[in-house]
Amino acid sequence: MIVYVGPGAGPDAAAGPVARLGTGGVVSRPRLFGRLGASARVTVVSAPPGSGKTVLLRSWIGEAALSGRAAWVPVGRGERDPQQFWLLVLGALRQTAPGLELVQPVTAAPDLDGWVIVERLLTDLASLADRVWLVVDDVHELIADQALRQLELLIMRAPPQLRFVLATRHDVRLGLHRLRLEGELAEIREPDLRFTLDEARELFAAAGVHLPGLAPLVDRTEGWAAGLRLAALSLAGHPDPARLAAEFSGTERTVAEYLLAEVLDRQGEQVRRLLLRTSILDSVNGELADLLTGGSGGERVLQDLEQANAFVVAVDARRSWFRYHHLFADLLQLELRRAEPEEVAALHQAASAWFARRGFPVEAVRHAQAAQDWALASRLLTDRWTSLELSGQAAATHELLARFPAQASTADPELATLAAADELARGSLEAAERYLGLAEQGSASVPAGRRGQAQLLLGIVRLLVARHRGDLPAVADEVRRLEAMAEAPNAAQHDLAPAAQYDLAPAARAMTGAGEVRKLYVTEELRALALVNLGSAEVWTTGFEEAQRHLEQGIALARRIGRPYLEFTGLAYLAAVEIYRSFARAAERSRQAIELARRHGWTDEPAVGTAYWALGAVLTWQGRPEEAEAWIQRAERAVTADAEPAARLAVHYSRGRLELVRGRDADALAAFRAAERLAGRLAAPNLFVARARAMVLYVLVRLGETERVEQALAGLGEHDRDRAEILIITAALRLAQNDPGATAAALVPVLDGSASVFSWGWLTLAFLLETIARDALGEPASAGQALERALDLAEPDSGIELFLLHPMPGLLERHARQRTAHAALIGEILSLLAGRRSALPAGPRPPLEALSSSEMRVLRYLPTNLTGPEIASALYVSHNTVRTHLRHLYAKLGTHRRTDTVARARALGLLAPSSRPY
Fold first, then answer.
1. What is the pLDDT of residues 493-543, one digit of tens each?
2. How far is Cα 142 from Cα 168, in angstroms, rounded to an integer?
3. What is the CATH number of the domain that holds 289?
4. Helix, strand, coil shares of the chain as percentages rounded to 5?
5. Cβ of 285: how many Cβ atoms within 10 Å?
6. Owning domain of residue 90
7. Which of 771, 777, 758 is nearest to 732 (CA)?
């Protein structure tokens, strides 16, 4: 299906910019042809000039082979003669096959009345059996009220087989609302006529233009047919079409000519003045229009322009705010600079003041900057920055800061403070500290009347920097300073909360005086900010109780005062706290934070990375690596080491755990070492540093690097050697060395509670190692008790990660046959283990240290029932040699028992699969 692309009056137009556009391009638009051929009695195609209405209708008639059944009636510009119009209708109908037979000819006469012609048409067409379409183009040009009323009569009383298609630049009064209620009206409007990217690409190809980056141009033109056609004509044959396309705007000569002739020059002087003076705005309402024009009735004018499809678009359901089509706005701004160049700065200043009074700080700053009133712009931004920060509008403040002159952020201490916060949000902690230093050095030069505000900004940014650095003492100090500021007598002067929110707090309604209400909000907002930042800093220490308490208080306060950004941030870090208490609650908090981020557009914020990390950690613990991978990847993208080294350390740690579950021990080692290296960026101890160091040793044990682990443990001080995680690593090492007695001995302080374990995950690992050791020592009862304790810890959150790292299907099967409270969990673990052994994992095999030929010979005997001495006899080696090869196999395959070694070797394809499923 093909439509010729050329806006306006169609192929028959002979003059003007519309005709000069031509009809050379062809584009397939079946989505619109289908709607034109639908069963509605009346179809209205209503859109601005240049939208391609006429060409669409003519193309549809040709494509659907309706030339013999479609009567085309073009209405001349400013048609005031009903008789002339109806004679055109009669003539067009008689050119159709059914009309030629039914419609009687009429001769023009001075006394010929349109009502009489309509009645005659209704009589002539009463017996119409075949469908006929009456297509009236440019209905809006029917100026005479009588002609419209007569057309309405024909539409309402016409026989069912007569269908109407009305093309117009704006809706006309034809009483069509009744047909809409009856389902007899189809409407194609400007959004429907916009060219899609594929349609635009087809249009440009027909014009011989290849433009890979076409999407921005389609966005800029808003899919307007005339704009795209003019762009294609301009780009055809141009030596640098990409550059020209990037610069294409409403000021381009051909576009400007078209819009001037078809839109702007048709407006009266009052409307023209309104359009030009309000073109400086991204969106305008009636009050703003009246302010900038010095007139009245601006809202009605804007509504009329929108209804007339004059490139004015309503942006709210009440039709009180409007914007101009991008290209039309370009033209209007050009015309304003030509007509009133000396007024442009004053208009921006007036708009800035209006937006500032109404609580729109971003727009106020933008217009102050457009007026090049940099002092005003700086004052507006610094006054409202805290409110923007607490609303999660870091991207907006970044854009505003970028518009200032190059050296403004270093010369103005208040702007330097904001630049520090901006660098922090961009992920550069070092740059943030550099700007913060400049701000502190210049703080004495701040005018006396603004020093309180400047100190507040400095305090907030210092708090943010300390929290990102992981410096808990510094965070606590800044929190105390902010609380003192909040309680100060002049606290109400600090501009944090929007005025529209003052009546939301119940406590505020009980107070008297705006100053008291203001002070309450400043106090509560500062307190919520302090609590969330304090709690998020405490997350990475062992102060879980304090972190949870502070975060929950901050979240509750943020909800009460209507600050979803603070609520979202608090929930993200609360998820990290819950990791150590309940994986179910951690996952719930993570999803709540992620949903808030999605709803408000904060999905790239560093804080949401903490929520991604927590959810990925939960899924890893539950043995769901494929699901965990997606969330860990998101966390890696959202959290950078430069912005939040403490959070990034945790992300590296979880990446290491995930790689362990996948059997990629070497990759896990790299992740844990990356976490360990970040310790130098932190200003205070971080609990993940010690855990990452312990996991480095754990993975080295799994990789068979037992000598290196021995040396590392020997180099620790007595205090460090007695820490629970180090004792657990020591037990893992002794088990790898085939010394179950030493394994059990190392675990005694952990299991009797004398060496406290800060994570129940590590305690679970301790019980699993105890299980394996006791079983190897021939103590099945003790092994069963230890296994039951490990299952006790894992059951509440379906934690099976460690059971996959230390597979013991035989022990689990035996335990399931005994009295256990965890039969279902055991079944799930065995099922996962069986699935792992049934086939090789997809993708590349995990890194594996090569086995020697002697080790492979020993490995092939392990699935048999032969004992160690019998294997030695079969291989003609000593029993000690077989034991040495066994230790090497355990180390290289990351196992601890013969049965587990066989299972691991089968999973890696080193042995044939077993014929007996687990």
1. 444 443 333 333 333 333 334 344 334 445 788 889 999 999 988 888 766
2. 10
3. 1.10.10
4. 65, 5, 30
5. 22
6. 3-193
7. 771
